[in-house]
Amino acid sequence: MALITKIREKSGVAAAAIAISLVLFLVGSDIFQGKSSLFGSNSQEVGEIAGESIMIQDFQKKVEEATQNYTAQTGKGPSEQEASMIRDQVWNQLILDIAYKKEFDALGIKVSDEELIDMVQGNNIHPSVRQQFTNPQTGQFDKMFVVQFLKNLKTLPVEQQQAWDRFEKSISQDRIRAKYENLMRMSNYVTQADAAKEYQSQTAKFNSKFLFVPFFSIADSSIKVQDSQLEEYLAKHKDEFKGTNTRSIQYATFPVIPTKQDTVEFYNSIKKLAKDLAVAQNDSAFAMLNSDVRTPYLVSYSEIPEAVKPLLGTFQVGGIYGPFRNGLSYSIYKYGGVKKDTLFTMRASHILIAPANKTDSAKAQARTRAEGILAQIKGGASFETLAQMNGMDGSAQQGGDLGYFKNNGSMAQSFEKALFGFNGAGLMPGVVETEFGFHIVKVTDAKTNTSYKLAAINKTIAPSQATMDKVFTTADAFANANGNLASFEVALKKDKNLIMMRAERLTENASAVNNLSNAREIVRWAFDDNTAVGDGSKKVFEQDSQYIVAYVTGKSEKENVKVEDFRIELTALVRNQLKGEMIAKKLENKKGSLEQIAQAYGAGALVETVQDITLASGMLNTAGPDAIALGRIAGLKNGKRSKVFVGDNGVFIAEKISGAPAPALADYSSYKNQIQMMNTQRSSFYINEAIKENANIVDKRYKFY
């Protein structure tokens, strides 16, 4: 009986195990990876806005719609960077649809059907409608175009009807948002007292003499900052240090460089291509099909690589020339002769001397100076050196070089006429006058309208698959042997040939890591919930012509600000605080004139004088725009001296020599308007930030893209 009972118990356990196994089979391994909603997991949540969850399926659907619209408008699919911008646009639209809409609805702000009609075809046309229906020939907006379009809307394809619906929704949202922002702006009132205070700060002036001991007069190395002091400072100034989600990494890079064997094979392939190009019936088409980088068949002299130009005179029709090297790229050419173009091309350098103003005397002075420089060059002086010394435009840094240009109106008319009227190369005999000033010109490549028929095959040496596999194997072995940061650091000490890079404070949605432009896979790994500080990637990341093994060295969190997140900034602030205390203590109880106190203090103490300083825009010489010092000095009575005080940049003892109060003003309206205008300019930004902060936005897109 006991045995039967035992069997029943065991069979119950077995049945339960089978049931659990069946559930796990149906759910899949996702349950262990946080992807199942069986136990309330929200791993499919791409974010949260104002308490509403945004699921990845819904978000991706909107992204796909936006991508289709982009493709329909541009005729091409988005690049990786453009795809990222599309996702940002969709996300921002969701913020508008959810967070902003809640604010709008709470105030009852909306756009009625009548108002929408008025914006589209009424008396108050929305700027976007006006832009869309402006005649490109006349530049005029015609309301009848809109009316006719709407009459025919139902006959248009469904996609265009949907596009119009989206357009109407966007201008409606734009109007609602404008109403909301205008309401917020109108609630911002500048008082008479505010205006009077602004007037005083801009107008009242004072003269002061002060003793200043800058923080930098004490060496940083002499001040030891303790972690406890950093913790204390952070606790008192939490509002000044906002947390962000970041990761810092180190990574080893294993470059994939073509081997000697790869180079030999590349040369053999170039030779074969040269032979095939020589007998190709359609040489330009053959060259295009076999080039890594395609170039036009008919090129001007300016478009020909510098290494090829000196040999052009030796080329014969039908001949094969090259290979010519440019970095890791090699080019071979089949020469097909020349063709005359309607436009001429030339290259020149210039030195621009611009008059100080448009008066005749200023022009005369500029001409005299330009002619003097021209005389120096004719006497043997270096054109390039004088261009760098005297040129008054951006070309001066390049010795006046303007590069190649054509007589197609791209240059000033008088400049172009003079240069293309000049034959040959060399220094032009006189200065050239344009609306910009006077130019000394040297033609470096004479004008030509000859175009060259060159079928070019451009090939880049690339590592073979065997080479790539070999480097990958090395990187993979390194990743497996050094699975954490500690072992990575040991490996760095052992192998001095290892290439190590750092990337500090990467954000969740970063797409680049230093010069690695498409590094989302690395960033996503670093932010993965299963990746901890000190972990190695173990997986090898492929980036262009290199393999990467990464290690997380640090992290910061938005909701948990730590000293380590702002160690450099905090250390500088606390160090200056300690310096201020040291300097102030040394200055206390010292008597005499400021000069005597400075002498008694010793090295580092300065005595300076400022005149006609205002509170709004004062500069205290060495101390700069020290707000604390300006306020303390402005608040002193004339002829009085302050006690020792610590400013933004150092320690002060100040005397207010004299002050000229702002004259009485009957009307402060101009200052009132000035403040109001500044508030209006800033209001849109502050409103946006306030709504976003109130919405408690959680952005988890980095987990999916």
TrEMBL record:
Q: Which domain of life is it from?
A: Bacteria
| Membrane topology listed for this record | Single-pass type II membrane protein
Which keywords label this protein?
Cell inner membrane, Cell membrane, Chaperone, Isomerase, Membrane, Rotamase, Transmembrane, Transmembrane helix
The residues covered by the PpiC domain are 346-445
Location(s), subcellular: Cell inner membrane
PROSITE patterns the UniProt entry points to: PPIC_PPIASE_2 (PS50198)
Pfam assignment, any one: SurA_N_2
Tell me its family: Belongs to the PpiD chaperone family.
Q: What's the protein name?
A: Periplasmic chaperone PpiD
Q: What organism does the UniProt record list as the source?
A: Aquirufa esocilacus
